[in-house]
Amino acid sequence: MTTYFVSRHLGAIAWAEEEGIHVDAFVEHLDPDDIRERDIVIGSLPVNLVAQVCERGAQYLHLSLELPPELRGRELTVEEMRACGARIEGFRVTREAG
Predict the structure, then answer these.
(1) How far is CA 29 from CA 23, 57, 77, in A?
(2) pLDDT digits (tens, 9 = 90+) for 8-53
(3) In this predicted model, what pLDDT tens digit does every residue of 70-93 receive, in sequence order?
(4) What pLDDT sits at residue 95?
(5) Which residues make beta-bridge pairs with 42?
(6) Strand (E) positions, 1-98?
(7) Which is nearest to 22 in space by CA: 45, 7, 43, 5?
């Protein structure tokens, strides 16, 4: 079992480290083919990638923030992430036929 943290943002990586979140591999981009059953993927991924993670039998944990418009599109510090309520939330996504 491997825990991946998917982010290209240094503030998010520092936040995870300061929060004591166990991570085996920090990666900037996720290749769903690398994911195995029982792996854990943490990040802010698009729903189609989350579905692929879940289809492979892995767990997806979303890095959620309450991000005001003025903070969008820029690097956040650990303090800014905390002020925005940064947290990890589990989601299970299934793809519907159609």
Answers:
(1) 15, 19, 21
(2) 999 999 999 999 999 999 999 999 999 999 999 999 999 999 999 9
(3) 999 899 999 999 999 999 999 999
(4) 86
(5) 5, 61
(6) 3-6, 25-27, 40-43, 59-64, 87-91
(7) 5
Residue whose structure tokens are 């690398």: 34
At residue 65, the 3 state secondary structure works out as coil
Q: Reduced to 3 states, what is the DSSP secondary structure of residue 48?
A: helix
Strand order of the β-sheet with 59-64 is: 25-27, 3-6, 40-43, 59-64, 87-91
Nearest CA-CA partner of 44 in 70, 68, 16: 16
> Tokens in use for 78?
């650990």
CA 20/CA 6 separation, integer angstroms = 16
| 39's tokens | 């792996």
Length of the chain: 98
Number of Cβ within a 10 Å radius of residue 32: 16
